[in-house]
């Protein structure tokens, strides 16, 4: 006779979240709203990149932003100054967003008249990679000061994103960072990944990044 039962909680939680994520994508498709899940470690330049992205595309499409943090509204205040509609999401100590949390944020934002939503996920290279948010596409930022070995240490994150932004390339001369090595490592994990070197601070590479978004938003609306 068994003394106890073993419940595979992790599997069931992920399966339930995946179902919610698929339903959310269907809803976004009906509204022709493209949701980009942007992930990175803290300090990589996510919010600066978001601001650059808004500036590059604000005259072409309606943009909304979901800012996810464990606490504080610093980033939401920063984005709000651009005039962009923004919702701050507090995760209550959780290190990631899931599809249910994302749906709550989108409900507060309202997607009927928004073409493009940026979800700035919680700063973390582990948990956010495990949870499908219902996004149309996933992107991540790796900043030069973090080092070129991150694909070796956090392979799941690099394997599930559609585009990798390598940020702070204006600081390349000050760090031991091998751009070619990063590209080789991420391509082994994810052959279809697009790699775009940028400097969110100086604006370098933002045009290519904006072009990628334009194409994806257009393709999403035509599917």
UniProtKB/TrEMBL annotation:
The keyword Nucleotidyltransferase does not apply. Transmembrane segments: none annotated. This is Hydrogenase nickel incorporation protein HypB. GO terms for molecular function: GTP binding; GTPase activity; nickel cation binding; zinc ion binding. It comes from the Bacteria. Signal peptide: none annotated. SUPFAM superfamilies: P-loop containing nucleoside triphosphate hydrolases. Keywords: GTP-binding, Hydrolase, Metal-binding, Nickel, Nucleotide-binding, Zinc. InterPro entries: CobW/HypB/UreG_nucleotide-bd, Hyd_mat_HypB, P-loop_NTPase. Belongs to the SIMIBI class G3E GTPase family. HypB/HupM subfamily. Pfam families: cobW (PF02492).
């Amino acid at each position: 006779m068994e003394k106890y039962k073993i419940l595979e909680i992790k599997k069931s939680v992920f399966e339930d979240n995946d179902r919610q994520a698929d339903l959310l994508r269907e809803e976004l498709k009906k509204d022709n709203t493209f949701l980009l899940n942007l992930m990175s470690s803290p300090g990589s330049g996510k919010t600066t990149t978001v601001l650059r992205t808004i500036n590059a595309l604000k005259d072409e499409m309606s943009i909304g932003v979901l800012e996810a943090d464990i606490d504080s509204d610093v980033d939401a205040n920063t984005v709000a100054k651009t005039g962009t509609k923004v919702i701050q999401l507090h995760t209550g100590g959780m290190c990631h967003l899931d599809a249910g949390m994302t749906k709550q944020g989108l409900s507060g934002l309202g997607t009927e008249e928004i073409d493009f939503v940026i979800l700035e996920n919680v700063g973390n290279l582990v948990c956010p990679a495990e949870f499908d948010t219902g996004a149309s596409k996933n992107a991540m930022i790796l900043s030069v000061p973090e080092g070129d070995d991150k694909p070796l240490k956090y392979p799941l994150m690099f394997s599930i994103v559609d585009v990798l932004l390598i940020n702070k390339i204006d600081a390349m001369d000050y760090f031991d960072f091998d751009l070619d090595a990063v590209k080789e490592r991420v391509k082994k994990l994810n052959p279809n990944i697009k790699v775009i070197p940028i400097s969110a601070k100086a604006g370098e590479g933002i045009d290519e990044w904006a072009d990628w978004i334009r194409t994806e938003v257009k393709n999403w609306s035509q599917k």
